[in-house]
Amino acid sequence: MDKLKKPILTEKSISLLEKRQYTFELDKNITKSEAKKMIETHFQVKVIHMNSYYLPINKKIRKNIGKLKRKKRMIFTLKVGDSIPFSSINMN
Asked: What GO biological process term is on the record, naming one?
C-alpha cells in the first residue's frame, strides 16, 4: 500500500462516486496492472476500468521554484454492486 498514497476527495471525484468511480493519488512509477491488483486485493472489489493521468504543472511556478514533483492519479471504475467504504481507507 506504499504506492497507493491517498484518496482524492474533490468536487469532481465526489460526483464520480455515483458512477462507482474512485480516484486515488498513486506513486508515479506504478503501472496500471499493479494498481488494479493492489485495489482488488486490498478492498476486495472488482475493477473493470481504469484511467490514469498526471496533474499539470504550472510553468510560472516551475520557473521560480525549480523542478516540481508530478502527481499521478488514477480513476478506478468498479463492478456493479462493489464499493469502497471510506472508513476502510487508511493511508497513514
From this structure: translation
Q: Which has more pLDDT, 88 or 19?
A: 19
Neighbouring-strand partners of residue 53: 73
Q: What domains are defined for the chain? A: 4-81 (3.30.70.330)
CA-wise closest residue to 24 among 84, 69, 70, 73: 73
CA 24, distance to chain mean position in Å, is 2
Give the pLDDT confidence of 3-60 residue by residue, as tens digits. Answer: 888 899 889 999 999 999 999 999 988 999 999 999 999 899 999 999 999 987 766 5
Helix or strand run (H / E) with residue 13 = helix 11-16
